[in-house]
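This part of the workshop introduces the protein records we will be handling. A record pairs a protein's sequence with a compact description of its fold. Comparing a sequence with its tokens is the quickest way to learn the format. To make this concrete, we reproduce a full record directly below:
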Amino acid sequence: MQTRNVWLWALLPALALAAGNAPASSSAGEAAAPATVKINFGKDAIKPTPAQTAAIRRAAAEDIKEFNHPEQGGYAVALADLNDDGRSGLLVQYDDMAFCGSSGCSGVIVLATPHGYAGEGIGLPNFTTLAVLSAVHHGMHDLQYNGNSPIWKWNGKEYDVPGSMP
């Protein structure tokens, strides 16, 4: 059986930053909101750097241990600056049967930090496509899955659908 390598498709204005770590401009504490960016993990794939791969493997280690076929890579990656700090974090969609269902595959966000990437990931539900919306809650952009899900908002600790959590 031929192994399919799925890597990353990245679209965000933050990618235009030469070094990828310049601070975002702001006025009165508010950054200009970028347009909605729709990410399709199956198109225009590019390979993550060794540092990005290491960060994903570290942040998603528990999930990767559960992959049915970890030797096949098992994930696709896109870049997005979710907190307007001028650094593109890693949006990871698992591509392993253990994490996929009828509504797509789950994944994880690995935020960029001033010194690399966060050691822990932020879990994502099953999805096929992901939109990073211009609206921001508690410092993170809202997300929408598959083009028609409710809007997922950052509550300061995780993404959830407002009203769905007690």
Summary: The longest helix spans residues 50-59.
